[in-house]
Amino acid sequence: MPQYGFSRLSGRVALVTGGSRGIGRAIAIRLAEEGATVAILYRTNTAAAAAVISEIAAFGGRATAVCCDVAERSAVVTAVSSVATTLGRLDILVNNAGRAVTGKMLETDSEQLDSAIAVNLKGPLWCAMAAAPFLETGGVGRIINISSVGGLGTAIGGVAPYAVVKAALNMLTKRLAFELGPRGITVNALCPGLIETDMLEETADNEAFVGLRNSPSKRQLIARIGKPNDVAGAVAFLASDDAAFMTAQVLAVDGGRLDFLTHSG
Questions:
Q1: If pLDDT is split at 50, 70 and 90, which confidence band does 155 have?
Q2: Confidence grade of residue 7 (pLDDT, cut at 50, 70, 90)
Q3: Alpha-carbon span 6 to 19, nearest angstrom
Q4: Which of 96, 122, 221, 251 could pair with 18 in a Cys bridge, judged by C-beta atoms 3.0 to 4.6 Å apart?
Q5: Is residue 261 part of a domain?
Q6: What letter does residue 149 receive in the DSSP assignment?
Q7: In a domain, 259, yes or no
Q8: pTM (2 decimals)?
Q9: Which residue blocks in the chain are alpha helix, DSSP H?
Q10: Beta strands 186-192; 142-146: pairing state
């Protein structure tokens, strides 16, 4: 049974990229719990995608899955069009798919940077471009980008390429909001802090991350590591009518992180 007793998104259709695992999985389930019909895009893990669809169906929700690499623009166009046509409308796009590209900025090679840009920046842009013609107007349409506190300048080593590209995603959020605002479509970004997902395991050899995981109270106000549902709840709010007058915002969901390189804005 759904954990939440409200149906703020009843009758709406949401598309969640990277929806087969981690934060994306939690977002897909939460939006379905709130009444939305959900389509998830996934790249390789068919079994995981099927498991999410089954979990949503078990509580009476509606969901479907489409295999798509968001780095491939033509594939995105086909997938988004198929979802909007099959489900009859498109109200919410959540750009969650991402790739963790770690390392120092001065040691980053072209392949690493291109990989980060392809998924974490071009992917959300291709999805937004493909979805824009279908998104419902009049204050209902939503684009929600999942960025990172790395893009806001948290002082943690070893994530430079990822952080730089996420900073670009934050600006993309603002420019899309500027262009889509006249149509009544809002565009916002969420910047999660350290969240317990399998992507986090890719940083197991990073001393800064290990230190934060072991002693979160030293670097953030809420003394625990975040859960995928912490992000999913914020997405549900931004997708709802409760956030109809919010756009071009970049919001941290990080437990109150204290370790920023600068507070210049």
A1: confident
A2: confident
A3: 22
A4: 96
A5: no
A6: G
A7: no
A8: 0.94
A9: 22-33, 46-58, 73-87, 110-117, 123-131, 160-180, 207-214, 228-239
A10: parallel
Rounded distance, CA 192 to CA 148, Å? 5
In a domain, 2, yes or no: no
Residue 208 pLDDT grade (very low, low, confident, very high; cuts 50, 70, 90)? low
pLDDT at residue 229 tops 80: yes
**CA–CA separation, 80 and 127 (whole Å):** 7
Please state the domain count of the chain.
Answer: 1
Burial label, 241 (beta-carbon count in 10 A; 0-12, 13-18, 19+): exposed
Q: Which residue segment(s) compose the domain that 142 sits in?
A: 13-252
Question: In this structure, what CATH number is given to the domain that contains residue 157?
Answer: 3.40.50.720
Q: Which residues are catalytic?
A: 162
Q: Which of 11, 237, 46, 18 is nearest to 123 (CA)?
A: 18
φ, ψ of residue 159 to 5 degrees: the values are -125, 25
CA angle 25, 199, 115 (to 5 degrees): 105
How confident is the model over 165-200, as pLDDT tens digits? 999 999 999 999 999 999 999 999 999 999 998 766
